[in-house]
Amino acid sequence: PTPPAVPSADCAEQPAQARVRAGSHVTERNQPGAAQVAAMEKDFHDRLGKLRKKPKAAVTVRVHFQVVYGSAGNIPDATLKKQLDILNDAYKASDVTFTLAEIKRTQNAAWFSDPEGNERQMKSALRTGNAQDLHFYTADLGNSLLGWATFPSSYRSQPAMDGVVVHYQSLPGGALGNYNEGDTGTHEVGHWMGLYHTFQGGCSGQGDEVADTPAEQSPASGCPTGRDTCSSAGADPIHNFMDYSYDACMTEFTSGQNQRMQAQWAAYRA
């Protein structure tokens, strides 16, 4: 049966993107529309134009695992370290390295069971550091939503809200079938590094603002080899970490995505 829809994250009224399970019908209130994307891209390119130096190739991200738990959800250190390894493996070609800054455990049943409704309170209490500190929150996101993230451009106006939130059962070995290999984390960190979904904008316009990701009309689910939803060149990028395919199907970022992440880091987080 189709999992019931759950409310998506308010994300403090800032643009955010998420990942949902196949068959779910979740409306993301802060999914950036065309006008928001246009404004974000203008700001991005304006900031890039003012940089004196070209983006550096190597980026180091300090990861703060924020384990929020109630009667469940107290994820062991070993699982968190596996998640860190998965991030490092996925982003190796992007010249992005993730180092462990801390593992912080917070027992709060309300935050654990409703991290969306309590997002501002939770993050305001827990987040420390600066724009280069990735706060990786784990909690129970319900039956449909796997995770959400803020974009780099949001940090200036809402620094306390910066970070990613993922379903605690999406980490390696979790109970979410097809979504329990840690790639919800990979996907959400991609947003935190400045990437849109591969299906952003559908078949029209600039799509995800990356030239080497073929256009895609809608999210993929499962692992539909050969799926091609747009008339432009290239089959749908179902193996891309920024689609909605099963974890086992998601294996890559493109060179263009790697370049965009480096540029977004230079513009907003360096």
Layout of helices and strands:
Blueprint: E1 16-20, H1 34-50, E2 59-69, H2 77-90, E3 96-107, H3 109-113, H4 119-126, E4 133-139, E5 145-150, E6 164-167, H5 183-192, H6 255-269
Parallel strand pairs: 2-3, 2-4, 4-6
Antiparallel strand pairs: 1-5, 5-6
Keywords: Disulfide bond, Hydrolase, Metal-binding, Metalloprotease, Protease, Signal, Zinc
Region (Disordered): 1-23, 205-229
GO molecular function: metal ion binding; metallopeptidase activity
- Fraction of helical residues: 25-40%
Backbone CA Rg: 17 Å
How would you state the average pLDDT, rounded?
Answer: 90
Termini distance? 45 Å
- The number of domains is 2
What's the main sheet like?
Answer: 6 strands, mixed
CATH topology of the largest domain: Collagenase (Catalytic Domain)
Global shape? globular
Structure class: alpha/beta
Ranges with pLDDT <50 over ≥5 residues? 1-13, 23-29
Q: What's the CATH class label of the largest domain?
A: Alpha Beta
Order of helices and strands: EHEHEHHEEEHH
Strand content: 15-25%
InterPro entries: MetalloPept_cat_dom_sf, Peptidase_M43
Protein name: Zinc metalloprotease
Pfam family, one: Peptidase_M43
GO biological process, one term: proteolysis
